[in-house]
Amino acid sequence: MKLLDCPGIGKRPISEFDYVGAVRIPPSDADEATWADYVFNRDNAPGVMRERWYHRPTGRWFILERNTLTDEVVGLVDPADVRYKEPNYEVPA
Amino acid sequence: MNAYASTDMSNLSLSVRDDLCGYLLTGPESASALSAAGLPLPEAQLSAEEAGEALVARTGSDEYLAFLPKGQNAPACAWCFPRADRILAVQGEGWIELMAQLCQFDFRKMQPGDWLMASVAGVNCWLYREQGGKALLIGFDAGFDHYLSDIFHTLVNELGGKESTKGGAL
Amino acid sequence: MKYRLDPQPLEWIDRRESVSFRFEGQSFSGFSGDSLSSALLASGQKLLGRSFKYHRPRGVLSMANHDVNALFQSDEATNIRGDVTPVSEGLDLRACNVNGSLANDKDSYIGLLSRFLPVGFYYKAFHKPKKYFPFWEKIIREKAGLGEISTDWSATRQPKQYGFCDVLVIGAGASGMSAALTAADAGADVVLVDENPHIGGSLDYQLANVKEAAAVRADLKTRVRSHAHIRLLEGHYAAGWYTDHYVPLVGADGIVKMRAEQVIMATGVMEQPSVFRNNDLPGVMLASAAQRLITRYAVKPGQRAVVLTGNDEGYRAALDLLEAGIEVAAVIDLEWLDKRGPWAEQVKAKNIPILEQSAIYEAKGKDALTGVVVGEFDGRGCDSGLTRKFACDLLLMSVGWAPASQMLYQSGCKLGYDKKAHQILPRALSNGQHACGRLNGAFTLEQRLADGERAAKDAVAQLNGESVNMDLTLHRDSVAHSHDWPIIRHPKGKNFLDIDEDLQLKDLINAAKEGFDNIELMKRFSTNGMGPSQGKHSNMNGIRVLAEITGKSIDETGSTTARPMFHPVPVSAMAGRRFRPERLTPMHQWHLDNGVQLMEAGQWMRPEYYLPVSEAGASDAAGAGQIDQRQQAILQEVQAVRSGLGLIDVSTLGKIEVMGPDAARLLDVVYTMTMSTIKIGMTRYALAVDDSGVIIDDGIVGRIAEDRFYVTATTSHAAAAFRTLSLKIQELGLNVRLANLTGSMAAMNLAGPASRKLLSGLTDVDLSEANFPYLGMREGTLCGYPVRLIRVGFVGELGYEIHLPAAGAMEVWETLMREGQSAGIRPFGVEAQRILRLEKGHIIVGQDTDGLTNPFEANMSWAVPLKSKPWFTGKPSLALLKARCQRKLIGFRLPQGFNGQLPKECHLIIENGEIAGRITSIAYSPSLGRTIGLAMVDLPLADGATELKVRVDGGAMVSIEPCPTPFYDADGARQTADLTEVA
């Protein structure tokens, strides 16, 4: 069983976590192509990625910086750093 | 099969702590409500403090789980919710070997007074090692009582321990 | 036991305890501590099995858990490995892969046909014409396989245990013990594991008669056994390497899942056979196998021996044979004697003939070895013209070693061929991994001890966070212990490279000729290394052969990676205990006491329906006998709700309290409809879609205060709903608190025309239509407990969802059941609820919707306020999808009195021979007296007029008639009005 070295709660079995992927911010007033890209495409390039992990037993979300090539957790991200305001989307007339 | 230095299992015992009532307190008023009720405020998140028969754990910046002896009033706070936790207590030297069959955590690292939230046999649980190392408390949603009590019961028997009914029948 | 030697100083057997067992119908006896093979050999039974393909006679090869031709079976078990399985009283064993008896195998003729069975024969011969393959398959399957599985088996489970340590040392030979002691002395918490029942490794079987080793052995063993920081696990093997230093240690009683900060591999080397004609005859074995037989089991492996050697160890083995009273007819050295050390001098001094630059050209014998033919060897080939013959019943092969490096490969370490050592050695290890001893090229006792110490010091330094400049070469031997080509061609073949799969040298050569000249391709085409020993005695020679054929170096040729497990692991050990969480509601005991039939809903156990308790006679009255008890119970539950009163346990609903200044903003983001406009004391339907606009959940949101809401979610989505809400709080930085009340609150739905009347006597909440309208939510007490009452309409009758802390739930439930008796109250289960909501045309997320369904397809555009709301999750997708709706959920019905074959959920709707939709829900509606359902159909068919055809089980087509929904009480009069007027 893999471990996730979470700076927030220490090394925990990865089976205690849910993973939702990279931190992404929905685009505001996006055209169709931009929105479709946001919904369906992922970069997936190896390297340091900011990812959201949910630890079920504590009910907490962590934003980890992880090198997806070496599988090393580099650091914990302050949620304030990746905060966004809900975007706007006007339905085209 | 035993990866642990063999310990005396005969004093391993399992009991139910149904003398405690749990509450979830959240929001800016939670700390003052606990203080007003004479309860301790653990400083670090994911840590716990005992006060007499009561146990308070800090599970968020202003979120707490409080376990109070039955009959004691709930802390006065608008955002205070009764919990339906089932709490098992494991006592005896062999507790680490028991837990080693149920949880991936390295319990040799768990010191008296430590609070842990982890998956035990597939169920999200909180665990607290009482001061003085008296017992390991394992709390979980009462809906899993049938499932988890059965597992603990079987394991204690297999490992050669006994059950005590202190605090309630299994 | 005529082949039993006098007591040996390190023997594993207990001569006081005799054990008897049966093999191939004959009685045998051995001593406690014997392996099956050693006990059989002690009694003179050399023939232990037949080979997989040609049914050739086979005996002992390694005595190290690689003897896959000595594979036995009992009535209970297969895959019993003779070389390592201890004897036990009363065992009744048969050799496997035998047609008839082991001694007279009727399939041994297949060996005569071997020239007609070239490599890849099965692939080529039987695939055309295709229609005959089942015929051939049956024959091949009967001939293939290693034993018969008893279908009369009983399930066994062995508990697993998690273990932790600072340093895990795998292998308790000289270097492993040295490493363990060094690390433990430095204060590390050490686990030392060895697959054998006793520690010692090759120190005990290879250096048993070496005087200088005796003191070292005694010292190491005593200290290892008594060291406070060493936990010793004998009889456990490390089965594989998994990420983050996770190494399952498998023993007779199950698996210890060990997590180690540092892992030291002291796994040693596996002796490799020489390849020559008839190298598989019983009596031909690895030198280390003979040493194991003598030292561990005091078994004499033969009477007159020839030793083939390519290293010093062969001379050691010859000396050991002499010590055991076995005549050594000759030592055949692949090279010149002057390359050898003092052991060779000792052999020479005993006047044993030594033939230099020679090899075994072929072995002779029918069912066992009777002699060998020796020829001159130039390092590549053996000259058949200049031959000498020796009569012998034992031939030892000591031509080289392959590292037990399976786990190093699995962990991604770099290994490479050392041309000086003629052995593959580790080159670079990653942090926390170490290798020492013969695995790392340290061969003398001094080197092994020093290398173990070095590895342990590296491990301890890494444990302390120090950076380590690891030098793996410090204690490596300068002398080769392997020969680079112990392989002898023979025109008549039968020179086996892989005795698991009966692969001859020519098979690999032919595979390469056919183009499979890459190590991975060759393995798969020839099956080299794919048998039960997983290449442990064939992979190295296979690499050498392929390198020779292709003219590439060993490194360029590469190696396949042996996957976990290192040895076969019983399923019972992998299964472990059964950990399958099951969740019960606070009213569970009542359900059990009242005839409930339970069903699984995720982790929850929910009432599916209740068997009628009081109307047992009614089934006769119904008379038809076609409606089974289940169906009848469900229909009665439906009718009770429609005509009187029903109560269902809905405690499994997700229940989340959402509090704080930004609570309304959060819910506006998560759900499609506007929640910030809900009035205090009212609820609203809550539909959640994902970014792509697909429906993921539904429930209700109720407003308790300006800054406080109560949210419910479907049973299966409860945890996910909490997760999503907390995620959005983090993403948007909202000032909101959540309380997950799913487990601490119970909920039940009291539904039916009589619900208001019943409740009014039990609660202080004003239930009048004016003060507590449909979709209203009120707080108050019920039977003295604080409750929230919600006017819901899921089942289409006047109804109240009652939410309260779990502690009071049972009393409230029982009170309602008791007080509701006069109104004909019945508990109802999930099945009745499904019918009730279907009559109302309400969808169930996940049943009527799938992973692609958007709200427009589910006729819920009313729940998608694209104009009035600037944002909600999935809004842009829905705005784009609105005009692109491809399919729609429609209602349909079957004719009254329909008695054909009923369509089922997921049956397909066919239009012009093409799939045009599927049924998502279907049930008999007692309220309408006919079968109704929902179907997701392609848009052109969703006009409400087109008759649809459904293909049912068996292929028949059934017509269904589209109709509007709701099917029942279309105006909703029964759930919104004062029921006294309606009824």
UniProtKB/TrEMBL annotation, chain A:
Gene3D superfamilies named in the record: Folate-binding superfamily
Annotated InterPro entries: SoxD (IPR006279), SoxD_sf (IPR038561)
GO biological process per UniProt: tetrahydrofolate metabolic process
Single annotated GO MF: sarcosine oxidase activity
Protein known as: N-methylglutamate dehydrogenase subunit B
From TrEMBL, chain B:
Name of the protein in question: Sarcosine oxidase subunit gamma
SUPFAM superfamilies with a match to the protein in the record: Folate-binding domain
InterPro entries linked: TrmE/GcvT-like
UniProt cross-references to Gene3D superfamilies, sorted A to Z: Probable tRNA modification gtpase trme, domain 1
Domain of life: Bacteria
Automatic annotation (TrEMBL), chain C:
Domain of life: Bacteria
The UniProt record lists the keyword Transferase: yes
Domain (SoxA A3): residue spans on this chain: 492-577
Record flagged with keyword Oxidoreductase: yes
Record domain GCVT N-terminal: where: 587-867
Keyword list, A-Z: Aminotransferase, Oxidoreductase, Transferase
Coiled-coil positions: none
InterPro entries for the chain: 2Fe-2S-bd_N, FAD/NAD-bd_sf, FAD/NAD-binding_dom, GcvT/YgfZ/DmdA, GcvT/YgfZ_C, GcvT_C, GCVT_N, SoxA_A3
Aminomethyltransferase C-terminal domain ranges (all copies): 887-969
GO molecular function terms listed in the Swiss-Prot or TrEMBL record: oxidoreductase activity; transaminase activity
Residues covered by the FAD/NAD(P)-binding domain: 166-416
Pfam families: Fer2_4, GCV_T, GCV_T_C, Pyr_redox_2, SO_alpha_A3
PANTHER family on file: AMINOMETHYLTRANSFERASE (PTHR43757), AMINOMETHYLTRANSFERASE, MITOCHONDRIAL (PTHR43757:SF2)
Family: Belongs to the GcvT family.
Protein name: N-methylglutamate dehydrogenase subunit C
